[in-house]
Design brief:
The chain is globular, with a radius of gyration of 15 Å. The chain is α+β, with helices and mostly antiparallel strands and 153 residues long. It is 24% helix and 17% strand. 37% of the residues are buried.
Protein backbone atom coordinates (compact mmCIF):
# COMPACT_ATOMS: atom_id res chain seq x y z
CA UNK A 1 0.00 0.00 0.00
CA UNK A 2 1.25 3.47 -0.85
CA UNK A 3 0.35 6.67 0.94
CA UNK A 4 0.20 10.24 -0.26
CA UNK A 5 3.53 11.85 0.43
CA UNK A 6 5.41 8.56 -0.09
CA UNK A 7 8.85 9.74 -1.23
CA UNK A 8 8.89 7.15 -4.03
CA UNK A 9 5.79 8.75 -5.52
CA UNK A 10 7.17 12.28 -5.11
CA UNK A 11 10.27 11.22 -7.11
CA UNK A 12 8.21 10.29 -10.18
CA UNK A 13 8.90 12.97 -12.81
CA UNK A 14 6.05 14.89 -14.40
CA UNK A 15 6.07 15.44 -18.16
CA UNK A 16 3.13 17.82 -18.40
CA UNK A 17 0.95 17.24 -21.48
CA UNK A 18 -1.09 20.45 -20.98
CA UNK A 19 -4.53 18.89 -21.44
CA UNK A 20 -7.23 21.34 -20.42
CA UNK A 21 -9.62 20.98 -17.52
CA UNK A 22 -13.10 20.05 -18.73
CA UNK A 23 -16.29 21.13 -16.95
CA UNK A 24 -18.12 17.91 -16.09
CA UNK A 25 -21.51 19.58 -15.80
CA UNK A 26 -21.77 19.44 -19.59
CA UNK A 27 -21.04 15.70 -19.79
CA UNK A 28 -24.38 13.91 -19.99
CA UNK A 29 -22.97 10.46 -19.15
CA UNK A 30 -21.77 11.60 -15.70
CA UNK A 31 -23.53 12.96 -12.63
CA UNK A 32 -21.92 15.68 -10.54
CA UNK A 33 -22.60 15.93 -6.82
CA UNK A 34 -21.38 19.54 -6.38
CA UNK A 35 -20.55 22.28 -8.89
CA UNK A 36 -17.27 22.98 -7.12
CA UNK A 37 -14.68 20.42 -8.06
CA UNK A 38 -16.57 19.57 -11.26
CA UNK A 39 -13.54 19.80 -13.55
CA UNK A 40 -11.02 17.17 -14.64
CA UNK A 41 -8.37 16.74 -17.32
CA UNK A 42 -9.70 15.67 -20.71
CA UNK A 43 -7.98 12.25 -20.55
CA UNK A 44 -9.62 11.51 -17.20
CA UNK A 45 -13.04 12.60 -18.48
CA UNK A 46 -12.71 10.39 -21.56
CA UNK A 47 -11.93 7.42 -19.33
CA UNK A 48 -14.84 8.12 -17.00
CA UNK A 49 -17.24 8.27 -19.95
CA UNK A 50 -15.79 4.96 -21.20
CA UNK A 51 -16.19 3.45 -17.71
CA UNK A 52 -19.83 4.59 -17.67
CA UNK A 53 -20.49 2.48 -20.78
CA UNK A 54 -19.31 -0.60 -18.83
CA UNK A 55 -21.90 -0.13 -16.09
CA UNK A 56 -25.46 -1.44 -16.07
CA UNK A 57 -27.98 1.00 -17.50
CA UNK A 58 -29.44 1.61 -14.02
CA UNK A 59 -26.12 2.92 -12.66
CA UNK A 60 -24.26 6.19 -13.17
CA UNK A 61 -20.88 7.41 -12.04
CA UNK A 62 -21.28 10.31 -9.63
CA UNK A 63 -18.34 12.69 -9.34
CA UNK A 64 -18.10 13.89 -5.76
CA UNK A 65 -14.94 15.94 -6.30
CA UNK A 66 -12.47 16.45 -9.10
CA UNK A 67 -10.06 19.36 -9.45
CA UNK A 68 -9.45 21.65 -6.51
CA UNK A 69 -6.71 24.26 -6.44
CA UNK A 70 -3.74 22.94 -4.49
CA UNK A 71 -3.03 24.59 -1.14
CA UNK A 72 0.45 25.96 -0.47
CA UNK A 73 2.99 23.09 -0.60
CA UNK A 74 3.76 23.42 3.11
CA UNK A 75 0.13 22.52 3.91
CA UNK A 76 -0.29 19.79 1.32
CA UNK A 77 1.10 16.28 1.43
CA UNK A 78 0.32 15.60 -2.25
CA UNK A 79 -0.40 18.67 -4.39
CA UNK A 80 -0.54 16.48 -7.49
CA UNK A 81 -3.70 14.56 -6.59
CA UNK A 82 -6.80 16.73 -6.97
CA UNK A 83 -4.70 19.79 -7.79
CA UNK A 84 -3.62 18.25 -11.08
CA UNK A 85 -7.13 17.55 -12.32
CA UNK A 86 -6.15 13.88 -12.53
CA UNK A 87 -7.78 12.60 -9.33
CA UNK A 88 -11.46 12.12 -8.78
CA UNK A 89 -13.62 11.03 -5.86
CA UNK A 90 -16.48 8.88 -7.15
CA UNK A 91 -19.47 6.86 -6.11
CA UNK A 92 -22.40 5.27 -7.89
CA UNK A 93 -25.91 6.67 -8.22
CA UNK A 94 -29.17 6.08 -10.04
CA UNK A 95 -29.77 7.77 -13.41
CA UNK A 96 -31.70 10.50 -11.56
CA UNK A 97 -28.74 11.17 -9.24
CA UNK A 98 -29.72 9.36 -6.03
CA UNK A 99 -26.47 8.17 -4.44
CA UNK A 100 -26.34 4.45 -3.74
CA UNK A 101 -25.34 3.14 -0.35
CA UNK A 102 -21.80 1.88 -0.58
CA UNK A 103 -21.44 -1.83 -0.20
CA UNK A 104 -19.19 -4.64 -1.34
CA UNK A 105 -21.12 -5.06 -4.59
CA UNK A 106 -21.10 -1.37 -5.50
CA UNK A 107 -17.38 -1.07 -4.66
CA UNK A 108 -16.52 -4.02 -6.87
CA UNK A 109 -18.72 -2.76 -9.73
CA UNK A 110 -17.12 0.70 -9.49
CA UNK A 111 -13.62 -0.76 -9.24
CA UNK A 112 -14.07 -3.10 -12.20
CA UNK A 113 -15.28 -0.33 -14.52
CA UNK A 114 -12.64 2.20 -13.50
CA UNK A 115 -9.76 -0.28 -13.57
CA UNK A 116 -10.84 -1.47 -17.02
CA UNK A 117 -10.30 2.03 -18.44
CA UNK A 118 -6.91 2.59 -16.81
CA UNK A 119 -7.67 4.46 -13.60
CA UNK A 120 -5.97 3.38 -10.38
CA UNK A 121 -7.34 3.43 -6.87
CA UNK A 122 -5.65 4.95 -3.85
CA UNK A 123 -5.67 2.00 -1.45
CA UNK A 124 -6.75 3.92 1.65
CA UNK A 125 -9.80 5.56 0.00
CA UNK A 126 -12.19 3.38 -2.05
CA UNK A 127 -13.67 6.51 -3.63
CA UNK A 128 -10.37 8.08 -4.82
CA UNK A 129 -9.25 7.20 -8.36
CA UNK A 130 -6.74 8.79 -10.69
CA UNK A 131 -5.21 8.70 -14.11
CA UNK A 132 -2.06 10.49 -15.23
CA UNK A 133 -0.79 11.82 -11.88
CA UNK A 134 2.28 10.65 -9.96
CA UNK A 135 0.33 8.08 -7.96
CA UNK A 136 -1.01 6.58 -11.21
CA UNK A 137 2.49 6.55 -12.74
CA UNK A 138 3.96 4.84 -9.67
CA UNK A 139 1.15 2.26 -9.50
CA UNK A 140 1.32 1.40 -13.21
CA UNK A 141 5.09 1.56 -13.62
CA UNK A 142 4.88 4.47 -16.08
CA UNK A 143 8.14 6.37 -16.57
CA UNK A 144 6.48 9.70 -15.77
CA UNK A 145 3.22 11.33 -14.83
CA UNK A 146 1.24 13.16 -17.53
CA UNK A 147 -0.31 15.78 -15.27
CA UNK A 148 1.16 18.09 -12.67
CA UNK A 149 -0.54 20.75 -10.54
CA UNK A 150 -2.74 23.15 -12.50
CA UNK A 151 -2.63 26.88 -11.93
CA UNK A 152 -6.00 28.43 -12.63
CA UNK A 153 -6.16 32.23 -12.88
Amino acid sequence: MTVFGDPRIRRVPVVECHEPLIDLRGIEALRVAHPTGARLRRGVVDRLVAAQTLLRTDLRLMVVEGFRPPPPPILCVDPDAHGSGAAVDLTLCTPSGVELVRGQESSSVLGAALSAVGLVNYDAEWWHWSYGDRHWAFATGAVSARYGPVTVP
